[in-house]
Amino acid sequence: MNVTWLYVPGDRPERFDKAAASGADVVIIDLEDAVVPARKDEARANAVAYLRARRDAEGQARVHVRVNDLATGRGLADLEAVGELADAVRLPKVESAAVLDAVSGAPAYALLESAAGIVAAREIAAHPKVAGVALGEQDLAAELAITDERAMDHLRLQVVLAAAAAGLPPVPMAVYPNVKDEAGLLASCLAGRGLGMFGRTAIHPRQIPVIRRAFRPSAEEAARAAEIVEAAERAERAGLGAVALPDGRFVDAPIVARARRTVALASRLAEPEG
Ligand SMILES: CC(C)(COP(=O)(O)OP(=O)(O)OC[C@H]1O[C@@H](n2cnc3c(N)ncnc32)[C@H](O)[C@@H]1OP(=O)(O)O)[C@@H](O)C(=O)NCCC(=O)NCCSC(=O)C[C@H](O)C(=O)O
Ligand SMILES: [Mg+2]
């Protein structure tokens, strides 16, 4: 399961390899808002050249491309150019499921970045071409004049629900816009984790380890989960579906399922020793 995605502007090809070596699970070459209109053709050509030249190697980051808005000719031309080469495409400013009918080729991730997009989240998430959804919080905050994090939490939860109801993977958090505020990034990731979000897109390589730390179960959480799994296995051998731990905590099927996920995640995100 991916935890970190790193954006790199399509007109900075000298940074593509740095992004791939950053430790991010996925690199997103951006052709949209990080690129000024005058450089968009060049950015698309850079993305195509990079994708054609890359060699799949063990441990290599996957490469996604954020194309321009599919409601524009430029977005459709981006899709035509990179759709068969990228591991996935990210579609900005999706506001209705209808626009997704144009998608072919790589799996598509829909970005909900406007009031209309949030309102249509359920139908967008349920579209068969959609492999996942995420928010675009900078665009949302600008459109809705949001300055209170609690307001953003309401929007996040709507997308979390739409994704879960459609059977999509958990929703990753949107970019944290200050590349020097690591404490703020960590606190924000922990808050998003509490809303059921998982993983985060980054805009700078230094954000990657902070995001991994935030979504890695703590040693205490991992130990508690392992204890639950062991108790469940003992209960199963005794023919019991529900038991209480010595400290009074109740354990049944959904609690065990969650604990198993935590154990697996702790192992997947374990820091290398030394
Ligand atoms: C934010 C940046 C413009 C900062 O760039 P800069 O000031 O040049 O960074 P540094 O001097 O700290 O760079 C240090 C070294 O790190 C490399 N670097 C920096 N950023 C990246 C990157 N993204 N990928 C790869 N490598 C990177 C530099 O090359 C330096 O390396 P070295 O010279 O060897 O020391 C910049 O980080 C940046 O452009 N970030 C990405 C911006 C972007 O793509 N934005 C689009 C996504 S945002 C979004 O999606 C919002 C959403 O739509 C919404 O609505 O919410
Ligand atoms: Mg945006």
UniProtKB/TrEMBL annotation:
Enzyme Commission (EC) number: 4.1.3.34
Binding site for Mg(2+): 113, 139
Keyword Magnesium found: yes
Catalytic class of the enzyme: lyase
Domain HpcH/HpaI aldolase/citrate lyase: residue ranges: 5-205
One Pfam family of this chain: HpcH_HpaI
GO MF: citryl-CoA lyase activity; magnesium ion binding
Organism superkingdom: Bacteria
InterPro entries per the UniProt record, alphabetical: Aldolase/citrate-lyase_domain, Citrate_lyase_beta/mcl1/mcl2, Pyrv/PenolPyrv_kinase-like_dom, Pyrv_kinase-like_dom_sf
Key words, A-Z: Lyase, Magnesium, Metal-binding
One GO BP: oxaloacetate metabolic process
Essential cofactor(s): Mg(2+)
Positions annotated to bind substrate: 66, 113
Name of protein: Citrate lyase subunit beta/citryl-CoA lyase
Taxonomic lineage of the native organism: Bacteria, Bacillati, Actinomycetota, Actinomycetes, Streptosporangiales
